[in-house]
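Subgroup meeting minutes
Present: P.N., E.W., G.H.
Scribe: E.W.

1. P.N. recapped why we're keeping a running log of single-chain structure predictions: easier to compare across weeks, and new members can see raw inputs and outputs side by side.
2. G.H. added today's entry (190 aa).
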Amino acid sequence: MRPKILITNDDGILSKGIFALWEAMEEVGETYVVAPSSEKSASSHSITLSEPLRVKFLEQKNGFKGWSISGTPVDCVKIAIKTLMKEAPDLLISGINRGANLGTNIIYSGTVSAAIEGSFLGIPSLAISLDTSDPISSFTSSKSIIHKIINKLELSKIPLGSILNINIPNCNIDEVKGIRITKQGNQYFK
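Output recorded in log:
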């Protein structure tokens, strides 16, 4: 049986990164895309309290479909799991974010916060970022790396309440020398 994969991000439902992630995960499982209607970078773990949330279903000619939410990435995860999906997903992946999420700056990241919200709800969760701020950068290598990680990952081995924050270098796939599991650093970027 194919796993149910919830895909979200903080760059918005029409970002190139979420489309690349959807393309990669369509081959792996049954995908559900629920993402902010506009960019919500650095929204941290905020939720919307003072205005109504608008939910709109989108479908494009290339087969991409999903729900656009007027709120934050955390709002998207809550609404997806508690309202839009009939069953909880087997995996939540937030990304592919444009720009690395490193050091203590992850506390500002909507991408990482969406994954954390998934872990709060008992869902194995990953945050994926590409180390570039170039808006036209290719996500081709990222898709290959994500496939390798997903194929080796045992979801049951992600400790409850933990996430994997994955940062991918902006290079060709043949330049990647391997994958390393590390602890989150404490470097602070100004």
